[in-house]
Queue: 2 jobs
Job 1
Amino acid sequence: MNDSTLAPSHPPQPLDLPRLTQAQAPLTQAVDVINERGETEQVHIPAERALTVYVDRRELVTLMTLGAHPELLVLGYLRNQRLVDSVFDIESITVDWEVNAAAVRTRHGIARIEERTASKVVTTGCGQGSVFGGLMDEVDRIELPQAQLTQAQLYGLVNAIRLKETTYKSAGSVHGCALFRGEDMLVFVEDVGRHNAIDTIAGWMWMNPEAPSAAPSTQAGQTDTASFQPMGGADKVFYTTGRLTSEMVIKSAQMGVPIVVSRSGMTQMGHAVAQQLGLCAIGRATNRRFVCYAGAHRLVLQPELA
């Protein structure tokens, strides 16, 4: 943490990455329904469940989630809520579906946690995401890296999403998000809310180095914190099936990702924040159609491809 009173008095030693359980829950559930012909048939629906997060034994929030990657969701949530500054601030995250709880243990506590979580903004979208503190507080301090996306790469990533086998195709009622490097899909996440999916990707980025060779290990499986660089967003593109709201734009920017693409549209506040940040926001991206709402200087147009 930045609070000097919480900093260790001795020189920093190599630390482990957070210890995470692997408590993936079933993503769908079979139910009987009546169709238009009056016949009974079985369909699969997403399995929504509550996950209450405790930080150092203090109840923080309850997230509604599919439970596909709950530990990464919690880690990314803490990151995007600006409650922790580094992946190494977290010692462990333990998820237990028998009690629907996630227990987070930090290394040095979270400074002023009561003050920082006192004000909550309920955001738009399914599952009603929430963010602590002023939604716009840190926007002025975010500087996005220089990056561009070609129209051909845009079509490539949209096609990759189209071909992806997803829970949405089998059960519907979920949002999908993905992180790309050019046309290459690095990770794909689905959840009941797009805010959960982007938080999970944020957690995944923190747990993975920028390059596989960038995480030299010391004895006992420890990671050299001076050498380990969590994955950055400079050459990445964030994709979501949901709307580009202010929350989604800000979270993408906090992750250092300067280009976002959506199958859906964009809200007025999301548009204003994207323009302020110089973030490239592309919506209505299906097949070979799209509109660029903001940050067109980052998009290399190739109209002949359309």
Job 2
Amino acid sequence: MLDNMLFKQLMKHSFTIPVEVTYPNGKTEKYGNGAPQVKIKVNEKIPVKDLLRNASITLGEAYMDKKIEVSGSLQVLINSAYESANSFLNNNKFKRFLPKQSHSEESSKNDVQSHYDLGNDFYKLWLDKTMTYSCAYFEKPDDSLEEAQMNKVHHILKKLDPKPGSSLLDIGCGWGTLMLTAAREYNMNVVGITLSEEQYNAVKQRIKDEGLEDQAEVLLEDYRELDHLPFDYITSVGMFEHVGEENLGEYFNTISRYLKSNGVALIHGITRQQGGAYNGWINKYIFPGGYVPGLNENLTHIIESGMQVADIEMLRRHYQRTLEMWTDNFHKVLPEVRKMHDERFIRMWDLYLQACAASFESGNIDVIQYLISKGPSARTLPMTRDYMYKD
């Protein structure tokens, strides 16, 4: 009885939109004014002690196991919960972070492979043709996902103001679109590194298919173990979220060590303006070992590593739109996904995409590009930002 009362109080104060909740006993309650925008059906009792222990894991697993069903947009519902000051997502009584994560080289490899080695065929179903699994950049309202991903690649490379024949290291190269674009269109000599065997094999084949063996190389190894000469430029997209809170300093120190004097790096990643945080459910099911660092945290590490900030750009709304497009794509290919994975996986992945979109929409997380240089800020770059936007 007490659990039921507490759970109802939790629901009552957790949303900024009108919501209808049907409880396991069949009774329905409406919260908020107006017609419900989302309906929640609770099929089994959710112990409040589990919510207090870790609300994100408890509710995420309940959704995956159909203990909770949602009619309407998950993104709208979760965004509403983030916007409610009294929500379990914002109330300190319900916030619980995971213990400190392990980020040894072996655990980092296992973490990356558990996510990215789901298989290239799976990602091909709902990513665009560039196979880019990070925030796109929408220059025009009607940009397709593929156009926006290529916009992002060029936006990053233009920020570096790269010189033909210069060297580029791409840390966490994904399926290789950025590094191979740099080689093919900017005449750079590139090295990409990844811990994903699926990505490594795909990039290696692309290098061969595009005849870029003299300009491009991909390595399957930890970013901390690279044995190469310093580089003129470094890019790293969607990488530092995986290194762990305790290794952020080492990550930026490594970038500084790999950069030539006055070299320039563009680091693009998910950042919280409110300070760093873990998410229990994301850590357990999507990105083991993941940690979203705070803005101040990253800036401190950049400065302490002997580098300086030349430019910062927030792309939060771009990632919201990217995730919304991925969600639409994922829904369109569900018959194909069902041939690969069961319904629990599908509900998990759908929740992941929509919850992330809601988190960006609400400002709970951001994605930021840090343009940094080894030495005085932007010593080798043009005086104004105009160069970033020229063809």
